[in-house]
User: Fold these one by one.
Assistant:
Number 1:
Amino acid sequence: MSQNKPVHVPVLLKEVVNYLALLPGRSVVDGTLGLGGHALSCLKEIGVKGKYYGFDLDENNLKIAKKRLQLFSSECQFFQDSFVHCHDRLQELGITAVDAILLDLGLSSPHVDDASRGFSFQKKAPLDMRFDRSKGLTAAHVLNNYTEYDLKTIFYRYGEEKYAPKLARMIVARRREKALGITEDLMNLIQEIMRSPKDQNRMASRVFQALRIEVNDELNVLREAIPSLLSLLKSGGRMVVISYHSLEDRIVKQGFKQAALNDCDYQILTKKPIVPSEAELQKNPRSRSAKLRAIFKS
Ligand SMILES: C[S@@+](CC[C@H](N)C(=O)[O-])C[C@H]1O[C@@H](n2cnc3c(N)ncnc32)[C@H](O)[C@@H]1O
């Protein structure tokens, strides 16, 4: 881990606050607390009578967020768990509905910057990529055990990688000699396929993202979570989701559409997804693929 204090610039912050339309005393579920950047602004809106339920799979991020939000400790409750379990975890506490729900999907900056996590192709690290390092399959397990067909499908489907068949074939051939263990092992194969460093980096971004989605089962979790989270909304409540991948955005769009079709109390607030302004992109290039969608329950 770098010696510098971890930072994550919250994406579309003003838009999140506007769409959630929080008022003093409101209750909020933050399914992806991260470093608590969005939380900090939301907590100021809901004040001392509000309630903030923060979930994150990542133990380190949760620790940082807790510390950062300690001024608001009586309004906050923290859970190291997936947002797919928000509904059940809150029910255990006797909470059946909340006023606002936020999901800000994907990676936080410390995930990318922390060399030990294996999320970044630019850092030599064990191929891990789990948000929750206490359970589940690592990226190394996927690369060393999945069939060639499954690897090809992951790179193709989640990364839209045109060299998916070639890469999958090379992984299977390489692992017969020696298991892949670190990010460099995968990068070496990508460098054999692509000549220019620019193309290598582009391909590595797609391949690493695809692997991360598989390792954390991100699309299935999101698909399952949306209806379950929507069922937690009080009348007058709102849910906002920020996604960073076209397949995620499609799941959010369809999940909201389905809710509005099934129940006329749900109204979609964003016909088209909201994206970062030029000014935000300049200040925070990591926001570049963000898309925000919001829904209201009357
Ligand atoms: C983009 S960051 C959130 C940043 C946060 N909004 C902020 O302003 O600091 C996404 C966070 O979601 C967490 N995460 C990813 N999948 C999750 C899941 N299924 N359940 C809970 N947390 C998850 C990651 O560990 C990461 O901390």
Number 2:
Amino acid sequence: MLSVEGLEAGYGRARVLFGVSLEVPPGRLVCVMGRNGVGKTTLLNTVMGALPATGGKVTFEGRDVTRLRPDQRVRLGMGYVPQGHETFPQLSVIDNLLVTLEASAHRDQAAVEEALEVFPRLKPLLKRPAGFLSGGQQQQLAMARALVTRPKLLILDEPTEGIQPSIILEIEEAVERLHASGLAILLVEQYLDLALRLADAFLILDAGHVVRSGAAQDLRDEEVHRLLSV
Ligand SMILES: Nc1ncnc2c1ncn2[C@@H]1O[C@H](COP(=O)(O)OP(=O)(O)O)[C@@H](O)[C@H]1O
Ligand SMILES: [Mg+2]
């Protein structure tokens, strides 16, 4: 479904990604792990086209998307929830969802109801400005917005970072249900136990290189702990 080959990117002259390759097969959940600053967010931003690739290739459903704009990738079915749960803070919850619906390829109103079924906690909050929600609720709204576009692949950057434990569980369950429903997911997650519960496969980045990859059960070994410990 998603294939990344030899991806290179950086900021100005500072190179961050050094030939990163990964595959997300249809319906699979692949977890990208690694310490702070190793390039996880840079990888996702480059996969989505928010940052230009200086080398390598991104293929989505057999199509080379490396030179497409982010909105073009969204329309092809790549949904992205960036790190830090971005929403439109002045807009109400429902307007956050409707703005995304307007920009979607399908514009089917039913997609808003479907997204709210995944995050029922948002239903009583529809008229509230997004900026007034808690961090966890904003994360759910950011994920609901991505779902409104009816993605074939959902890309999530640390969806549980800095969020109160009660909502972490709800977010984890939502990711689990979406995965079970057949959605392909590329997840950046720093917590090993969460990754172990959710992922089919994983890769570990270190200083912009993939240093380990494998099936989720391989995450239990000693070297993995060494690569993830600070
Ligand atoms: N906008 C930016 N401009 C310059 N350097 C950046 C920018 N964003 C991230 N970096 C640097 O790129 C490296 C990787 O960052 P990032 O991809 O955010 O890592 P991670 O998500 O794994 O914590 C870090 O050294 C970081 O300081
Ligand atoms: Mg990051």
